[in-house]
């Protein structure tokens, strides 16, 4: 008998009962050994056994007792967060040393699963047409992706998913993404939990992505995976990809694992290099200084008089290069104690497509990402029923954006007067002579012809964490798990644009703005958080109950202004503050005397600093406040979790889950420009970060049914509802006087989502297997983005007054996969159908003079076209030189379908807009426009990527 039972963590559990085959009596003291490991236990006085802390994988399990035949059960699957229940019956030994070997059959229905989850093993990953973890996640039921490619689970925002690697959080607290990239070839098992989850997991509102990476084994093994490919299409929408070049998309990954010292020290080492030229190209026609392209004979970056013009050429605009490495060492200090050292490092550089720069690709910033993880894990088993795990680690994510690494690189210097003719709008003599003085040198609907990006951005998040977990199967009914986590973060940011050293000449010579100046944003913060949880998995008869409680606390360790109408300490708006030093401002008593005047009788009357702001009438206690700043408050919360599973037959089970979830908003929303720098010009400033934001909270419910409906075939039906409050949004304007306002982030947005997921699954047998997931889901809320209302203010639109569909609200979604295999040949196909995402319609009218009158209708009240995608993998197993290998072909977007991601508001399509007609009327022909009007409105970046074909080879030994 083979049953799965859910746990939490990075390892699995094995349990069961051993009986005598003839009499059905229990066997006491029978040894259970996992072959090839040092893991084992024995049955107790009830004939039962429990074995915890087993790494995920496929094992052979031996049942052995003197006087009985030895039984070996092969292909026993151990999964993270699961208990494999394995019962056995031993017959009386007739022939000494006899063994009975049986292949364990995996039960289709997991009778105690109390939550929605998907599991993908390393073997399954190998056969899927996917190359990144992201590709796997977007295939899961209940997950949608927005126009920017970010993933949303159960209707939540993209930053609400927790990423766990080898038992520790790897979520970047700055933006909610993953700090370090994990390669598919390094994953032993990937678990995706959506909706509700156990108390062990925190810092998430909608789900958990839990990845366990591979360990070194007891024998030397190696693996190599190589593929090369390119996008190929005859669609004229995507220029210059109608030819096929294998070198445009190349990946080489390899890993090696095995013993360094047998039975004492093992290792797992891997590496990958990957580069892609993308599929969006531009026609390089101009240099970044505004001249047409030329042969740069002396490599000075601009055209000299004796250098000839050359024919424009295509250049990739959405490329990337990356490399990664992982090294894990495991020391077996004793049969019950392991010590692991793990490091993961990755680095990549990329450049995104910029529609306006399609004719001048030079001079654009590139983006650089670096992730690092270093961790130590110590685990000790007190017995087969209890163990403890200690994790200490540090991980970091650094993001940079710049054109040249050296901010004073001489190539930033603008070398000639042509650039200044562009900026000043003056007409060069040769153009005036050829086209006349009335020619428009800057016509409408013109793509950029020059540009040197001078902005620079550098930010880094480093997290140090200490995590302790203790698990104890205290009796046959209760498994207790408890633990705590302490995390300290270090955030740094430096952002600025290079400035001109002199405005008196026509040469741009860069200088770096000083730290603390208005033109440069810098900060360093060190927030802290810690948490504690306890959970009990109760197995009472047929009923399974997961009961847990989590406590979390967060200290932002920052300040906010005491006087909200006077936020910028370097430039106070109250003239009476100008005479105070910085030290006096920081220690100011708002109730102290600012100045004296006389009453009608000539008596002196003192006026406090606070009186200057009385007309705002919203800070009655300001005079009682001391100091420019006040400290932020510590945030904390208890979060209960409850989940129940109950079998309704030997082939079906129902489950219910409830949870209260708590998450600190992204640090980017807490700490952005918290110096409150305000310029002398302008009327609306912001949005400024708010380090005193409250936690965002979600209450989730789920009810589900799993039923075996035929041999090897099951049905799952789940309904869910989630209510999210305290979402971050833009606050109301804070009055500064003189018609000026500023905005900060506040907790005021609301969201709810509900849906039904229907799944059919058939285990692979008789050469075929398949799975289909249909999701009906509604995701509504007040705003899709924390900055959305501020953008509405700047555009002169009304703030949100009702609940509307969120940007990622996809009502209907159907995912499916099918696998085929026969005599070493095989195929795996994945298809995705999705109904249209919402967009905001715009009705545009034109007056005879060409003036635009745009009426923006209700936000997100119309739907984009549906999308459909089919990916396929074809493969053939081979053997050569004693190694196992596989030849394969991956084809993405097999049908080369144009899936529209972004659309024009006046048509709801990516290739239609009334603006083209208007452009042809008011600006039909311009001799100095380098592009056509259709080229200006043609947006290949508004579509999903076209067909890509990869050819690969992998082999192992």
Automatic annotation (TrEMBL):
A GO molecular-function annotation: siderophore uptake transmembrane transporter activity
**Short name of one Pfam family:** CarbopepD_reg_2
Recorded hits in InterPro entries, A to Z, give:
Beta-barrel_TonB (IPR000531), Beta-barrel_TonB_sf (IPR036942), CarboxyPept-like_regulatory (IPR008969), Plug_dom (IPR012910), Plug_dom_sf (IPR037066), TonB-dep_rcpt-like (IPR039426)
Domain TonB-dependent receptor-like beta-barrel as annotated: residue spans: 358-894
The UniProt record lists the keyword Plastid:
no
Annotated TonB-dependent receptor plug domain residues: 111-207
GO CC terms in record = cell outer membrane
Q: Where in the cell is it found?
A: Cell outer membrane
Keywords in alphabetical order: Cell outer membrane, Membrane, Receptor, Signal, TonB box, Transmembrane, Transport
- Protein's recorded name: TonB-dependent receptor plug domain-containing protein
Which organism is this protein's natural source? marine metagenome
